Amino acid sequence: MTEQTATTADLDAMLRKIRGLLAVADDDATPEAAKPAYRAKAEAMMVKFRISEEQAYESMPASDRITPTSRDIMICKLSAKYRNNYYTVLAFIAEHVGAQMVTTWDRSRDEYRATLVGFDADLRYAELLYTSAFLAYHINLEPEYDANKSEEENIFILRNAGWTRGNIAKLLWGQESSAGNGKVQKVYARMAAERGTPVVAGRGVNRADFVEVYADSFLNEFWYRLSLARQAANEETGDGVSIVLANRSERVMEAFYTMYPSRRPREASPFDVPTVDTRTAAERAKDEREEAKERARFERQAAKERLERAKKWAGPAGQAGRVAGQRSAASVNLGGIRTAGRVEGS
Description:
The chain has twelve helices and three strands; from the N terminus they run ααβαββααααααααα. With 346 residues, the chain is mainly alpha-helical. The chain has a domain at 3-142 and 211-263. Strand 2 (100-106) and strand 3 (111-118) form a beta hairpin.
């Protein structure tokens, strides 16, 4: 058996263990206080595997050395409304595992795809993380009726994602009515209580505001939890991990530039001609006045957007979106306690 074959077998076994740890961490029967330890252990296993690969690298014959490869991952449908959000999730994961990423559009298949370049273990781990993160993120960004779930479960999922009671009643029973709205709310409230999910009371939960705040909150929480996972893994594996893995990162970058030569940074040439400002003093003064006006316009617009954003985050929809985003990010195979969250309003 070659070193390459042995390493592949070891990788398969390690990934099975990681899936097992993450399954325990995501099991509702696992005490909340114990879940972070299982997720940290899974991350530490990946780090240790990377270190073992690096330590074996120098002693292997050149023909047996493990080299970076690539892996194609579908981010989402090209027509997906929130494709930029899904891209950001995968970009976070790629950075987390030490991979490089490029994206492509396949209009014929309506697919938004990414190619990740890195070591096989890291890319397979990235795909595992993205699958979990996508499902958690998608459920509130673009919830859909699921015929495989019960009526009550569909009510909870849709209401928890900011759907109004009327829209849910119309979807389920063909029309909106006081009785239908009341039934939706009763079922939702009971399901939320059974799951320990807090309800944000009050009317005015705007779906667009909910989604905007939810999307930002998920990304913020997800990145924070990835950082915590790296920190926990580094503490378990020792401070020297960054030194051991430095060469690994360099080999990934070189493989990336070999596959995509146009992405390699261009070195300065002695033949480069410096830019010379040929404007007159009057022309420069005029341009500076125009630039000052443009900056002022931009700052006014930015201030207006900050105010609107603050209002959204402070309102019922914003509160619901923030809690839901944090809760969904907490459910992704990483990080600490699952934060419960939900939505109220008509």
